[in-house]
Amino acid sequence: MDREFSARWRSAVVLKRDLFSTVERGRWRSESGEVDAVLRRIDGVPWFTRLIARHLFNREARALALAPAGIAPPLLYKGGQVLVRGFIGGVPLHVAEPKGDRTYFRSAKQVLRALHRAGICHNDLAKRQNWLRKLDGTAALTDFQLAAHFRRRNKLFRVLAYEDLRHLLKHKRTYVPEALTPRERKVLARKSLITRVWMASGKRVYYAITRGLFNFADREGAGLRFTREAPLIVERLKQHPQVRDAVIVAYPDRRVGTGLYAFVQGEADETELRQFLKDSHTPDAPERIQIVHTLPRRNDGAPRLDVLHLIAMNQLDLIEPLIDNERDRSTIADIVARRRNLRDRTAF
Q1: What homologous superfamily is domain 222-337 in, according to CATH?
Q2: Where are the domains of the chain?
Q3: pLDDT tens digits for 224-268?
Q4: Which residue(s) pair with 236 in the sheet?
Q5: In terms of pTM, does the model score above 0.85?
Q6: Region 3-86: CATH code
């Protein structure tokens, strides 16, 4: 690691760790003072993904350097194995869950148009974690590892831009289906030839390699353990007589890469719950189990996964803008005070 980077970067919390990079949040000392920033580093990737990691690293740096301000994080620094980008205050789409929020999706469409006017196609917008909902309710994009820049709007650019739009509309269909226009429904119904070929061949190979060979899944960045094991653990926890409800979220863990964090509403003891899971021969217990008096909930009664996810990841400064009443503020403050993941405390 070069001296300039070491002197200017101060890490606070790990956001993500996978086969291709580690992503951390921290502070970057710029000429005008310290600013919130995000670091992507590839110095710790395994040897068998090193070439791919380097390729993705360079693609992201180029895209961030050319992307319009306000819709993507600015590129602050690029070294041999580290890339520092600006921090956008907000939460990923799968955490924000903007149901019925037409304003967000109008903003998202404007963001996509601006990106395409700059000649950049993102190419990874099927993942909800790459869409951010900023604190003012508008959209932004992140994770440009697969992005491509075009000097001319050729046929390939138009096809990839179309697919960017189609993936945005899939998210819109999930959260505000009633707002889809007839033209947007036509876009959703028609995949490009490239996509049809990919789904018929390349996607199967991709899954065979990532899920079979590497035992790795990138659904919302959580991995196979979250998608396959967490539901079984939640189901078993709810069978305990002193558990009223349970929720599991994924978070970055230094030891295992992606850890599981269980928020359990009830009167049970953590040691008792771990033994209960062990005796029932369910998958390994979550790395963190926190007993809570009450889970924060939405108006429809569903747990506030957005807030719980941020607590598990120690991104505490992003929680306050999501709270709009004193009841939730009290409930969430109690959970924050008793949180179990203190390995990567944030300094914000």
Answers
A1: ANL, C-terminal domain (3.30.300.30)
A2: 3-86, 90-190, 222-337
A3: 778 888 999 999 999 999 999 999 998 887 666 678 999 999 999
A4: none
A5: no
A6: 3.30.200.20
